[in-house]
Amino acid sequence: MSELPNSLEDAIAQSQTAVQAALADGCNRLQVEFLFPELKLMPVAEQFVPLFAEYDSRLKIFFADAGAAALARRDWADAPFQISDIGTGRAASLQTKIQPEDEIFLFISPTSVEVPQLEKLCEAIGDRPLLFLNPRLEDSGTVGIGYAARKIRDRFINTIESAYYLRPIDDQTALYRRYPGQWEIWVENGGEYQLIAELPTKPSGDELDLILMKGQSQTTTNAVPGRKPNVFKSLQRFLKALSS
């Protein structure tokens, strides 16, 4: 049975286990998403990166721009891994960005603006494993809508496996996925969270609304009580304390 986290450290540990499982299954393009509006990502990245400690200098971490990469080099001055920027907006040589000795790649919060360069980088990376941490790759204002957006989604975005997803929808509802499990919808009921639905794919906004409106499971099992009461409220308080 799934178990929701009750702290940010707990969520990061769960995500690390999920990433290890996905990599072991041969999934080479992964993403991890902690979708809290007040979350500061660098402390999360600092706790997440030790997952790749064995790779040492063969780990390469990408930030969206040169400024963010420079700040990371300052903050992680003694780190063995390499830090670079995606290189959008200038003539960025893929030969200098992706080298044969690089074995695994971590992209910190890339956005839809970087998608064209990301596609080129991922093509150069090939079958080597890569992970997107809190990516924001879909923005209709940048990527577009309709046919063009579908092509980008089919060609690139849909090739990324969600290893871990955690999003409080409100104080009483959460959407959760931990590889290799299904997508789960949890709702607070009587002081504890209950698993009310499991789905094989990520639900759309309309699907989510319909499930919540019905308030019933999409599976053949009854709602499963969560082990921790008010877990997402306490996690939100934790994140607010971390952000202050």
TrEMBL record:
InterPro entries: Chloroplast_ADK (IPR053021), DUF1995 (IPR018962)
One Pfam family it belongs to: DUF1995
DUF1995 domain span: 5-209
PANTHER family for the chain: DOMAIN PROTEIN, PUTATIVE (DUF1995)-RELATED (PTHR35509)
Protein name: DUF1995 family protein
Species annotation: Nostoc paludosum FACHB-159
